[in-house]
Amino acid sequence: MSLTTQTHIDQQGTVLLDIARLNENSDASIGLSDLKNKAASEVLRFGADLAGHLVSATGVIVPPAFQLQSASEGKVQVVGDHPNKTAIENFINSDSRLLKWFKELEVLFEIQRRIELGDSSEELAQQVFNFGLTSLGGIAFFTRK
C-alpha cells in the first residue's frame, strides 16, 4: 500500500492511551517528565489544529488570544471578553472531535497536576484547567475556581 492510499489515522488522545497501556504493565511506570513531555506535545498539536480549523470555518484568527474552560453540560466556554467569543464557543461545541480532544487534554493535565500536588488533593479541588490559544500557539494552565 502506498503512502497516498493509506487511511489517515488521527492521533488525538493517544497520550491517555499510552498512560493506560503503561498502567496495565506492572513493571512499567511513567515518570512525571515523560508525562509532561507528552502533554506539551498534545497541547501544541491541539492548538495548531484548533487554530487552523477555526480560521477556515469561521474566519476567526488569533490574536487576540482566548482562554477556554469546561462549562456545564459537557460544553466549552471562552473565559472573559473576546470579540469572537460566541463564534469560538459555537464552533468548538459543535465539533465533537475538538470538544472530545479538549476534554482529553483536561483529563491529561488533571492527572499531571494530581501527580505534581501529591496528597494535597484539596488544592486540586480549588483549581480549574484552562487552555489558551495565543499567536505563539496553545498553552495549558490552571486557575483558581
Which regions contain 5 or more consecutive residues with pLDDT less than 50?
A: 1-9, 20-28
Q: Whole-number average pLDDT?
A: 83
Overall number of domains: 1
- The percent range for helix content is 40-55%
Question: In percent, how much strand structure appears in the residues?
Answer: 15-25%
Put simply, the count of helices is 5
Give the helix/strand class.
alpha+beta
- The N- and C-terminal alpha carbons lie at a distance of 51 Å
Instruction: Enumerate the strands of the largest sheet in spatial order, edge to edge or round the barrel.
Output: 2-1-3-4
Spatial shape: globular
Annotation, overall tally of beta strands: 4
- Any idea what the radius of gyration is? 17 Å
The major pleated sheet works out as: 4 strands, antiparallel
- Compressed to H and E, one letter per element, the order equals HHEEHHHEE
Keywords:
52% helix; globular; 4 strands; 145 residues
Overview of this structure, please?
The chain has 145 residues and is of the alpha+beta class. The chain has one domain (14-144). It contains five helices and four strands. The protein has helices at 14-24, 32-58, 85-94, 96-117, 121-125, and strands at residues 66-70, 76-79, 127-134, 137-144. It has a four-stranded antiparallel β-sheet with strand order 2-1-3-4. Helix 2 runs antiparallel to helix 4 (96-117). The chain is globular and about 45 Å long.
Quick overview:
It is built from 5 helices and 4 strands, in the order H-H-E-E-H-H-H-E-E.
